[in-house]
Design brief:
The complex is a heterodimer.
Chain A: H1 2-32, E1 42-48, H2 53-68, E2 72-78, H3 81-93, E3 100-104, H4 105-114, H5 119-123, H6 134-139, E4 141-142, E5 145-146, E6 148-161, H7 162-167, H8 177-187, E7 189-190, E8 206-213, H9 217-229, H10 246-262, H11 273-278, E9 282-288, E10 302-305, E11 316-324, H12 331-346, E12 357-358, H13 361-366, H14 373-377, E13 383-385, H15 392-395, H16 403-412, H17 418-434
Parallel strand pairs in A: 1-2, 1-3, 8-9, 11-13
Antiparallel strand pairs in A: 3-11, 4-5, 6-9, 6-10, 6-11, 6-12, 7-8
Chain B: H1 4-14, H2 27-57, E1 60-61, E2 69-70, H3 74-81, H4 83-114, H5 121-133, H6 136-146, H7 153-160, H8 175-200, H9 204-212, H10 217-228, H11 230-245, H12 249-254, H13 266-276, H14 280-309
Antiparallel strand pairs in B: 1-2
The chains are: A alpha/beta, B mainly alpha.
Chain lengths: 435, 310
């Protein structure tokens, strides 16, 4: 009897296991291969990489689209960009590709090379270049062929705490190198109340820093901006080998090392500059417009200013998000995807509430401006993007052993010689290009 | 006259019984197989199957989007000259050396302490195992904040004592050791449980006999406890080796292989190659390398243990 009970229990467990697996499989296959329903609505899948406050805004837009008509229903999935791309490729390989995929312009190059994006589907949408911000439009081109619909533009700018500025006797945000250093020094204060220009200032006991920024690949984006401010943009879509201008690259790197180690106005190892800014422990931070929608919790007076001009020209790093259509043999779903993408582009005024700047000019003009967006808009004429090189995601990756991450952290966290960092960066980039 | 039946039965009683070898597929074996089946099926589909597939994929170039292209031993040749792989291998070995001694020593001492009859020992055992049952990513996030250079609790107390702040995970000199501390903290309870089981398996008579012989506590520990714990210790070393070499979550959350490449381990590099750079073939090659290194170290460890017994 005991034996029989044991055998029956084991069978029940096995059955439960397979049923569970079976249910999951059928759910995912229904989500992954959505098509025409019995009511004539075409279901499509849209993958995005938003995980912050902008995720809710995109969910809202998708809901609005679904509510506005019955011909197309969009199933929206969003997860961290890298994981989303892996899922996209795995689904593509399994012949259940999503119908719309969001990505950044510099990520597009690798997918173009893989041959997974459908330029003909974009072409048949008959978009007009004049309807979009030129930089964003150009970012969607590869060898003159359009592979995506520009959605938005984001870049760096300066957030500053007006109350702390007022207390330090500063009446406006810094616009030049000297102003930035001087203001940051006045705003870096130790526990005894002395700022970093005063005698007796204790750099080991700082309660408030003058200047902060993300000390990861975003530091390199700033280095890239400062290279462009010297009139030097070394990276192209076609590059196969790179020799960096040692002087200009080292100048850019040295500026950030000096801020951290010479002037001591930057908290070394800072993890979340925007959180430090909101907590009032850092007076100015460099961050993107994607942070704007989360600034409603701030209780002090703040504003944004254009990214300071450290060298001869104006330049700031930026990126653009686009909507791409993977190759799809289902023409009904492809048409539905085109309809959704066009709608999203034309209605991206609401997307501006996430802090992003719509790449669609008409939507940009119609958009409700979030507080702080004007500084970003003022940079549109000189924002510079990293190229959509097929190996861009390896070179400009945010994870080790990314060449740019190693360079940035060697500078900020280890204070290595700037010239040595440039040499290593060049070697690492060429290794990736040659692989 | 003998009763043939009784004499036959008597003869039968004297005749040695034919030994019956138990078939592994007897009724008990079948029940055991049924209970093991769910795990074995899931293991085969999700662990063993992909591992075997990885061996074949390692001979290809595959970006996940298209079809795998056979490239013979190109990936293995690349591995030999890839400086990033060499860095990850060195980091993994250093990480293992940093974590193994404390994970053996401290967990053994903790097990000995919590094996004694005292009030609250069950509470102590429960507290010790808590870090192990926490989600690794959560552990990484918590320690990230504790390690924060400017506002973390560790540097706060250092500043209070007049000591300078330490760049725990933002300096390439200290990042790997700082992550090692987290891993030791996480696994010490788990190893303690294993050692505890081993300690409770040592017959009490041995300790009684040693007491009668007048052995000191130190002599008892080195002559009885440690030798009797050898099989458990061997198992703990093997499990620690496998766990530390395969560690991913805490490093991914805390440092993501940085600063620079100072915490880039082989598993981290495998993940980056396969799922961020879309080089599944090369990622599988790294997987093979990890497997070979693990098997080699475990084989060396087993040989050393066996030679000590001889």
């Amino acid at each position: 009897m005991k034996r029989l009970v044991c055998i029956l229990t084991a069978c029940a467990l096995l059955a439960a296991g397979f049923t569970g697996c079976g249910n999951k499989g059928s759910q995912s296959s229904s989500a992954a291969s959505a098509g025409q329903t019995t009511t004539g609505t075409t279901e499509i899948n849209f993958y995005g990489g938003w995980t912050g406050a902008d995720l809710e805004k995109m969910k809202g837009l998708v809901s609005d689209f679904n509510a506005s008509q019955t011909a197309v229903k969009v199933n929206f999935t969003s997860q961290q960009w890298t994981n989303m791309f892996t899922k996209f490729l795995a689904d593509y390989q399994a012949n259940s590709t999503p119908d719309v995929v969001a990505m950044h312009t510099f990520e597009m190059g690798q997918f173009v090379k893989m041959g997974v994006l459908d330029s003909n589907a974009i072409k048949s949408m008959n978009l007009k270049e004049s309807d979009y911000v030129k930089t964003a439009w150009d970012g969607c081109l590869s060898d003159g062929v359009l592979y995506g619909v520009p959605l938005d533009i984001n870049m760096h700018a300066l957030y500053y705490n007006k109350d702390l500025f007022k207390s330090a006797g500063i009446d406006k945000a810094p616009a030049t190198k000297d102003e930035l250093i001087a203001d940051a020094q006045k705003l870096t204060v130790d526990t005894s109340g002395k700022n970093s220009t005063e005698s007796g200032f204790n750099a080991k006991s700082v309660k408030q820093y003058g200047f902060g920024f993300l000390q990861n690949h975003h530091t390199f984006y700033q280095i890239y901006a400062l290279m462009n401010q010297q009139g030097y943009n070394p990276f192209t879509r076609e590059m196969t080998k790179k020799t960096l201008d040692k002087t200009k690259t080292a100048n850019a790197i040295q500026f950030f090392e000096d801020l951290a180690y010479k002037y001591k106005v930057v908290p070394i190892g800072e993890k979340s500059p925007i959180d430090d800014f909101k907590a009032g422990t850092v007076a100015m931070v460099v961050d993107g417009n994607w942070q704007l929608s989360g600034m409603n919790t701030v209780t002090f007076n703040w504003d944004t200013a254009v990214y300071p001009q450290i060298f001869e020209k104006k330049a700031v790093w930026g990126a653009s998000e686009l909507l791409a259509l993977p190759k799809n043999s289902n023409s009904t779903k492809q048409k539905a995807a085109q309809t959704f993408v066009k709608w999203l582009s034309d209605n991206s005024a609401k997307w501006a509430l996430s802090g992003q700047i719509p790449a669609n000019i008409a939507a940009q003009k119609a958009a409700t401006n979030l507080k702080g967006i004007n500084a970003y808009k003022a940079e549109l004429d000189y924002v510079t993007f990293l190229p959509a090189h097929p190996k861009a995601t390896k070179i400009f990756s945010s994870a080790a052993p990314s060449p740019i991450l190693t360079a940035a952290q060697s500078a900020l966290l280890n204070n290595r010689d700037a010239g040595g960092i440039v040499t290593q960066l060049e070697t690492d980039i060429n290794k990736v290009l040659a692989s | 006259m003998l009763n043939t039946q009784s004499s036959a039965s008597a003869a039968g009683a004297c005749r040695p019984k034919k030994s019956r070898t138990k078939s592994p597929w007897g009724s008990q074996g079948k029940v055991a197989a049924l209970f093991l089946a769910p795990y074995l099926i899931i293991f085969t589909i999700f662990r063993f199957g992909p591992s075997v597939a990885g061996i074949f994929i390692s001979f290809t170039k595959w970006d996940l989007a298209g079809k795998p292209v056979f490239v013979s031993f190109d990936n293995f040749k690349r591995l030999l000259t890839d400086s990033n792989f060499h860095v990850s291998l060195l980091n993994t070995l250093i990480f293992f050396v940093l974590t193994l001694p404390p994970l053996i020593l401290f967990s053994l001492l903790l097990a000995i302490f919590l094996n004694q009859k005292m009030h609250g020992r069950n509470v102590g055992r429960a507290i010790a195992i808590i870090p192990y049952v926490l989600i690794p990513a959560v552990v990484g996030i918590i320690w990230n904040w504790m390690y924060d250079d400017n506002f973390g609790i560790l540097n706060y107390y250092l500043k209070q004592m007049g000591s300078p702040s330490v760049h725990w995970i933002t300096s390439s000199k200290t990042a790997l050791a700082s992550v090692a501390v987290v891993v030791v903290w996480t696994y010490i309870g788990y190893n303690m449980v294993l050692f505890l089981a081993g300690l409770q398996g040592i017959p009490n008579e041995l300790y009684e006999a040693s007491q009668i012989d007048g052995a000191s506590k130190t002599q008892t520990f080195f002559k009885i406890t440690l030798p009797m714990l050898k099989p458990i210790t061997s198992m703990v070393i093997t499990l620690t080796l496998v766990n530390t070499v395969q560690l991913f979550d805490q490093i991914y959350v805390m440092t993501n292989g940085g600063p620079g490449t100072s915490t880039l381990t082989m598993v981290q590099y495998l993940y980056t190659s396969a799922f961020q750079n879309y080089e599944l073939g090369y990622g599988s090659t790294i997987e093979i390398a990890i497997l070979i290194i693990l098997v080699l170290i475990i084989w060396i460890q087993n040989r050393l243990m066996k030679s000590e017994e001889m």
